[in-house]
Design goal:
single chain; alpha+beta; six-stranded antiparallel beta sheet; about 25% strand
Length: about 240
């Protein structure tokens, strides 16, 4: 779960969103209700999503909160930035998925090929020209090198308190100054593809690398031998 908070020290106002949606200054809420919402979302993420789509790590990590710098869209400072999910298969970007927030709705703005062109059926056209696509591609493939599948999530926007997000700057200036920030990475897709054919194509590419021998075996000296032999590992055995 993601919650956004933006405090303006000069005016003393605070905007917030209890999901990754538009920030609001509506403070008509009970603290107990907000705490209850946070608690339920933590359990949902750890239990429900952890079982269905997320990783072993998410199912086993101790619940908690992480505070990160707030980023904003280049065209409106009160919503999150464009987020790209970049799927790198055997070191090469296979597919990109873009998400944007408008108001209190989060939109999947489509899938894109390695060259930034829109996948057929994408109603929004190619990746916008102001996005530095060669940089996005370079970062994704450098991080995905020497891996069978690697998902890189990247924000394209500006820090929420960036001077260009204040009055007086143009949208063109903000786009030119956009930051490209890796927000998350995963060693398996986690994204739920609504089009099963897209998912199946990625799976075929992933498996094909193993069938063609596009890998080499290296000794694993990090995993305790007890786990390799039995698939389980008591704390005392793992200390060995």
């Amino acid at each position: 779960g993601v919650w956004l908070v933006k405090h303006d020290a000069e005016s003393g106002t605070t905007r917030f969103s209890n999901t990754a949606m538009e920030l609001t200054d509506n403070l008509d809420f009970e603290v107990a209700d907000l705490v209850d919402s946070l608690s339920k979302q933590l359990h949902k993420t750890a239990d429900h999503e952890g079982e269905d789509a997320e990783s072993w790590a998410l199912r086993n990590v101790r619940p908690g909160l992480v505070i990160e710098e707030l980023f904003a869209a280049v065209d409106y400072e009160n919503v999150p930035p464009m987020e790209l999910s970049l799927f790198v298969v055997w070191g090469r970007l296979w597919l990109a998925n873009a998400n944007e927030v408008r108001g209190f709705n989060r939109w999947n703005t489509g899938f894109y090929h390695r060259n930034g062109s829109a996948v057929p059926g994408n109603p929004h056209g190619d990746i916008p020209e102001w996005v530095d696509w060669p940089l996005v591609l370079s970062v994704a493939e450098r991080l995905g090198a020497n891996k069978d599948m690697f998902r890189v999530d990247m924000f394209v926007g500006l820090p929420a308190m960036h001077p260009l997000l204040q009055e007086g700057s143009t949208e063109e200036e903000r786009k030119a100054a956009a930051h490209y920030v890796v927000s998350e990475s995963e060693i398996h897709p986690t994204t739920i593809f609504w089009d099963s054919e897209v998912c199946n194509e990625g799976a075929r590419l992933w498996i094909a690398g193993y069938k063609t021998g596009n890998y080499r075996l290296i000794p694993n000296t990090e995993v305790p031998p007890a786990f390799l032999e039995t698939g389980i590992c008591a704390p005392s055995a793992c200390d060995a």
